[in-house]
Design a protein that fits this description.
- The chain contains 36 helices and 25 strands.
- The chain is α/β, with parallel strands linked by helices and 1006 residues long.
């Protein structure tokens, strides 16, 4: 089935057919970038020169831009093909430059006079290439020259010249070349960066500082990406390196100088003397005599004296034959470094003393080992800035340098320099023309305990990411804002359905009838009304009397018992300021006050106990926040489900995963977008990173409020984390920065993964696997919530009439509740009845053991529940003397978490899959190796930790993955731990502050 041509191509086909006399069925046209392709075919292949002659004369009389649409870029050249119908390949092809039609026509006319078989090759002398015209610096000529490379990709080119204002870096007032590329798609910049850079530098344009390539999609105003191309001439680059004493650059310059004299040259440096060997380059090489001494010295000596290479005090020149190693003549002369001591110091010595220009040269030489490639493309450029005891190094090139190939080289080289006052280095990589670095890498050569505030480097507009350069406020408590939106009440649920019993009772009163009974049974209608009136009056009187009696009983029996009221956000907002202040003071001083029980042991959420009198005081931490107990989570989830914002997911056989997922989904439904930062991992993440402390630390660095959520799960391994991020959550539900906080035991493939095995056998796991192929795109998940909200708004009027009875029912409930004496104390009434019920001998004996057990593991206990940020704050402080009296001290040999320790296997496969996923979604994954105590890190575990550290360093070569090792941060600060391997809320506060000030983590900014 043939496809109908667009209107603009129809005009071109008809025009070509009319010009050449070939049927429209034998003409095909195609517009690609700035090129027009014309295919001419027939039963016999059209004659080349005759077809071209007709077409060229038509081109002289026609403006092709008038035959195309307004949106079509200008046409610079036309490709004409001729082929026989039925054949796949064209027999001939001819390129026509539209700015040289007269010369093309002259060439064709001459070819028609000659034998067609002998003149198939074009006479190149008549045609001036686009390259020759482009070397003159004309914008249109440069555009035609570049279109030869870009048009096959479907990319149109337009070139403009913009005069630059005089600056420190542009004292010569040079111009900048702007190259605008437009296409129907967004091409990968790495595919065209180097080819275009090579072609531009090959022109050796003068008067231009650099060139900027800007790409955008047709019909859009936004520029997709920019690439900067350094147009510094190769000769200038060579002289810059030769100035620093680079032997290869000196040899290249000297060889180019002597090339016309047919002299070959080689150079080598020994100590501070440059040895230059001159041999003949003319034929025959084996019988040619040695080059003349005066000729060689006449070129070599003036050039070296003008360059004055750094660290080279003398030069020795040898003249010899090609076949003889013994020189025919030798000459020696001193260089400017002999007379000027400042020039006698080598570049390496200068770099070791901290000379920035010398460091830049050595780094560029290190990163550009291929001199020819650097001269062709511009190579990798190095920008250097020092701030305090840190050295910041930016590496950029037309194609962003790979972190794996650059970062380790740079850090190791700077380490060997041993620059005074430098305790660490930060390496960045970006594509030339970009402001933001694509990756960053850092190494500290010395322990850097405190981060000092400094100015942001000029080359790094990522100041929001380089937190280390901004002021930090250590040891300041993070105050949580009062919230009135997430107040949930604790209610009990009815366990059994009493509908059948109630139905029988109502039918027995004769006030109600069965709806299934025939309507014909309406004989004694007036009698039924009288019965209903009598029984209704008696029931109302009984209800009022019962309510009055219960109100009296409650006011007398438990006057001081606090109530758990059903508080709405509106009611909370009316709380007096005095009450709020009192509540805030309570939460901020609870941990510092002494226990009312004196020296008794205090229970905590982890089931551990410790003596209160041994606890130090005044450790900074975030104030405690309201707990998200399972009941509150259930109510929040049901509330959003009722509005259609959440989808019920079956259980994963892991209560904490179910609750954390419900909390996270509720957060998404409330905000309409994912948090800025997501914390994942095992219990070490759950207890070890405080979202509020981290958000506060980031806010003090200049950003507005950063939303952080902790999705830690007890026992979560790499497989569990991978399953949650890739399967359970949608891509649109994930932020662009995920912090994975854990340790080596989560990556042990040798032990049995109990947590993941339980999840894999759950209904939720099967549900997720079945739903995965049908996952919506990353842009649809959050939009579906907004669309659902809009749908509710637009259909509100329709639903208002059908649900008006609900408003009436709610009004009656509120009115009766205001009149009732016991309704406001209904929770106390239930507690009283429960206490009376439990006080019965039979019941109390049966429930006493269960109550004792539930005191330590009750899931509704507020001390064990996470807050609404997913964080589990534990106030207990690790005391080895009391801890090991109640818990056996297990060495690494017998620790099941390190059983058959092996990093290769299922866990590693999950990590690799997760890395591939985060890279495809452009998500930065930061792994934090959490702190441990010396009580935990015995010889065995330390050995495994070293293996794990090497494993993570290898993973750090992956893009979008950052590894931060904090395992040895607080080895002896036991007050920051709740047990040997888990932080308490004081340690979580300190770690969160440190992470917030980490310059290697690209924290989001608002």
């Amino acid at each position: 089935m043939k496809r109908e041509l667009p209107e603009r191509q129809k005009f071109l086909v008809q025009w070509v057919s009319k010009a050449t006399g070939i049927s429209t069925f034998g003409v095909k046209v195609r517009l690609q970038g700035n090129d027009l392709h014309i295919m001419c075919e027939g039963r016999e292949c059209p004659q080349r020169w005759r077809t071209l002659s007709d077409l060229l004369r038509a081109l002289q009389q026609t403006d092709l831009d008038m035959l195309t649409s307004f949106e079509q870029p200008a046409i610079y050249q036309v490709f004409v093909y001729g082929k026989k119908k039925g054949e796949k390949r064209a027999k001939w092809c001819h390129r026509v430059y539209l700015n040289q039609l007269d010369r093309h026509l002259e060439q064709v006319d001459q070819a028609l006079l000659e034998d067609e078989e002998k003149s198939k090759q074009p006479r190149g002398a008549l045609i001036v290439s686009n390259e020759s015209l482009a070397r003159q610096g004309h914008p249109e000529a440069i555009a035609r020259y570049l279109s030869e490379t870009l048009s096959p990709f479907g990319i149109a080119v337009q070139v403009k010249i913009i005069k630059q204002k005089p600056t420190e870096n542009n004292q010569k007032n040079q111009s900048r070349l702007w190259i605008f590329c437009e296409s129907s798609y967004s091409p990968d910049p790495s595919l065209i960066a180097e080819p275009v850079a090579q072609k531009l530098r090959h022109l050796k344009l003068s008067g231009y500082q650099d060139a900027v390539i800007a790409s955008r999609v047709s019909g859009e105003n936004k520029v997709d990406w920019l690439i900067r191309v350094d147009l510094t001439p190769p000769e200038v680059m060579l002289k810059e390196w030769a100035r620093w004493g680079d032997v290869q650059a000196l040899s290249r310059l000297l060889s180019e100088t002597l090339s016309e004299s047919e002299v070959a040259l080689q150079a080598t440096l020994k100590e501070s003397t440059l040895h230059i060997f001159c041999t003949p380059a003319s034929e025959p090489l084996f019988s040619a005599s040695a080059p003349e001494k005066d000729l060689c010295l006449g070129f070599i000596r003036p050039l070296l004296e003008a360059i004055a290479p750094q660290g080279i005090v003398a030069a020795t020149v040898y003249g010899q034959k090609t076949t003889d190693n013994k020189p025919v003549w030798v000459d020696w002369f001193s260089l400017p470094a002999k007379e000027h001591p400042a020039l006698a110091i080598s570049a390496l010595e200068l770099a070791s003393s901290g000379e920035k220009d010398a460091i830049v040269f050595l780094l560029e030489r290190l990163l550009n080992p291929d001199l020819d490639l650097r001269l062709v493309t511009g190579g990798i450029r190095v920008l250097l800035l020092s701030r305090g005891d840190l050295l910041h190094i930016m590496c950029d090139a037309p194609v962003c340098p790979a972190r794996k190939q650059v970062a380790s080289k740079v850090t190791e080289f700077v380490r060997q320099l041993k620059i005074p006052g430098i305790a660490g280095v930060r390496v960045y990589g970006r594509r030339a023309g970009n402001k933001e670095p694509f990756w960053h890498y850092g190494v500290d050569y010395q322990h850097r305990q405190h981060l000092e505030p400094e100015a942001t480097p000029e080359f790094a507009p990522t100041s929001a990411k380089v937190r280390e350069l901004l002021p930090s406020f250590a040891d300041q408590p993070v105050l949580r804002p009062e919230t009135t939106e997430e107040v949930y009440t604790f209610v009990t649920q009815v366990a059994e359905d009493w509908s059948a019993t109630v139905r029988k009772i109502l039918l027995a009163t004769q006030l109600f009838t069965d709806v299934e009974q025939s309507q014909e049974q309406t004989t004694d209608h007036h009698h039924g009304l009288r019965v209903a009136l009598v029984w209704g009056t008696l029931g109302l009187l009984l209800t009022l009397q019962t309510d009055w009696i219960l109100g009296k009983v409650m006011s007398r029996s438990i006057p001081l018992t606090p109530t758990v009221a059903s508080v709405s956000p509106k009611s909370l907002s009316t709380t007096s300021k005095a009450e709020q202040k009192q509540r805030t003071v309570f939460f901020t001083t609870t941990d510092a006050e002494k226990s009312p029980q004196g020296g008794k042991n205090i229970s905590n959420g982890s089931g551990l106990t410790q003596a209160d009198k041994t606890q130090p005081i005044n450790l900074p931490a975030s104030p405690l926040k309201q707990k998200a107990t399972p009941t509150a989570i259930l109510l929040a989830t049901r509330s959003h489900k009722a509005r259609g914002l959440l989808t019920q997911i079956p259980t994963f056989n892991a209560q904490q995963l179910d609750e954390q997922l419900a909390l996270y989904k509720q957060r998404l439904a409330k905000t309409g977008h994912p948090p800025d930062v997501l914390i994942v991992g095992s219990s070490r993440a759950l207890r070890g990173i405080d979202p509020v402390a981290l958000s506060k630390s980031l806010t003090t660095q200049g950003s507005s409020s950063i939303d952080v959520f902790n999705f830690g799960i007890n026992g979560a391994t790499a497989q569990v984390v991978d399953f949650i991020l890739r399967r359970v959550l949608q891509p649109a539900e994930l932020p662009k920065l995920i912090v994975w906080a854990d340790g080596s035991r989560a990556f042990n493939s040798g032990r049995e993964d109990i947590t993941f095995r339980a999840i894999a056998t759950s209904p939720g796991y099967q549900y997720v696997l079945e739903k995965t192929p049908e996952k919506t795109s990353s842009t649809d998940t959050i939009n579906s919530i907004e669309q659902q909200t809009d749908k509710e708004t637009t259909t509100g009027e329709t639903q208002q009439g059908s649900s008006s009875y609900k408003a009436v029912d709610e009004w009656l409930n509120k009115g009766l509740a205001a009149l009732s004496a016991s309704y406001q104390k209904r929770d106390n009434l239930k507690n009283l009845l429960k206490q009376q019920f439990n006080s019965l001998p039979i019941i109390s004996d049966a429930t006493q053991p269960a109550n004792k057990k539930s005191n330590s593991i009750n899931p509704e206990d507020a001390s064990q529940a996470v807050d609404f940020d997913g964080f589990l704050p534990l106030s207990i402080r690790f005391q080895p003397a009391t801890y090991y009296q109640k818990h056996t001290k297990v060495s690494g040999d017998y620790d099941n978490d390190y059983k058959s320790f092996r990093l290769e296997g299922d866990q590693d496969a999950a990590v690799q899959a997760l890395l591939e996923f985060t890279q495809s979604q452009k998500i930065t994954l930061v792994f934090v190796n959490m702190p441990l105590t010396t009580y935990y890190l015995d010889e065995i575990r330390s050995k495994y930790e070293q293996e794990f550290h090497q494993y993570m360093r290898r993973l750090a070569d992956n893009p979008n993955f950052i590894y931060r090792d904090l395992s040895q941060l607080y080895p002896k600060a036991i007050d920051y731990f709740s047990d040997p391997s888990h932080l308490n809320r004081y340690g979580a506060y300190k770690v969160s502050q440190k992470l917030g000030n980490d310059p290697m983590i690209p924290w989001p900014s608002k």
